[in-house]
Amino acid sequence: MSGSALYETFARAPLVFDHGEGTWLITDKGERYLDFAGGIAVNSLGHSHPHLVAALTEQAAKLWHVSNLYEIPGQSRLGERLADATFADKVFFTNSGAEALECAIKTARRYHFVKGHPERFRIITFEGAFHGRTLATIAAGGQYKYLEGFGPKVEGFDQVGFDDIDAAEKAITPQTAAILIEPVQGEGGIRPVPTQSLKRLRQLCEQHGLLLIYDEVQCGIGRTGKLFAHEWSGVTPDIMAIAKGIGGGFPMGACLATDEAAVGMTAGVHGTTFGGNPLAMAVGNAVLDVVLEDGFLEDVQRKALLMKQGLASVADEFPEIIEDIRGAGLMLGLKCAMPNTKVNMALRDQHLLAVPAGDNVIRLLPPLTVTDAEIHDALNRIRAGAKGLAEAIASAAAK
Ligand SMILES: Cc1ncc(COP(=O)(O)O)c(C=O)c1O
Predict the structure, then answer these.
(1) Ligand 1 within 6 A of 36 CB?
(2) Using CA positions, which residue lies closest to atom 7 of ligand 1?
(3) Is residue 378 within 8 Å of 35, Cβ to Cβ?
């Protein structure tokens, strides 16, 4: 055996976290890190949130798992709450984002199948997208680095440029079933899609009988200051995949759809062993209790503004390190003027955790419960990291 028994698929930082408290992670050596990575937008309410811990432990003492062969009251309740809060009428629970996307893709294909158009199975996607690591979702994402070596690409995905709605229109054929888009691209580099573009996509869907699918796995559940990012545009989808934040760290996802879009998803056509399990449902309901509290999302919007303004002033101070600030709500990106991996290391040296993304961006995804003081603390660490990098550049140039 070479080294660890684990697959070598992750390039892990040499950090071992022992426990978490709110926005903080504490290593096995007792060092404290300010967590603005949030498990990549998963720890929506930070670490060890008392309401989530209570919900999970209470459920754990009662019942861990029953099959979807039986009624699961927590699942019906969470389904109804998600439907009440969104465009959707129907919900299917999964264990992950990729599975939520798989369900979304299958829902769209089945819709056309039961409408008498089995030939309509193709889905238009956008460059820079990330939809997961299953065979179908790497095909949807279309990124060569994730497809290479895994055999023939799953058929049925046609990709156009990011925010290139003219190209999306041209890509529509009699075989097209749906358009799939992240309202704010996450892995692609924190790139919000303009409202006007979402409006045009909606129109194209109406015009050609296509379904509009949103992937809100990363940008959903309060991340942008609304429960779902697309609410800023007022443009609703027919189907939507969510995950990450809804579990607050417990693995879960969901596919939401209108009655009409879900018309093909009848008994026996799709399934899951673990999806919608009582433990996950207890946590999902607890996350919604907090996120839907009066004033919670407004406070996220206020804190997001504070953070964005602070970041803009750091970028003004160190343009040789940070070129631009982008994003929405507490889903912010630093477009770097030097390799983002170096900036990420400099932030980690300041005990601030962030996540690199595509397009040479560093993602900042603090918990929605982050305090003003923690935002100021993070800004100081980012300023210190940028200053150190700027000084290193200046002294190298002087040599
Ligand atoms: C937008 C988006 N979609 C889908 C996924 C896949 O989710 P998971 O890793 O839970 O399968 C991710 C994960 O990063 C994501 O950011």
Answers:
(1) no
(2) 97
(3) no
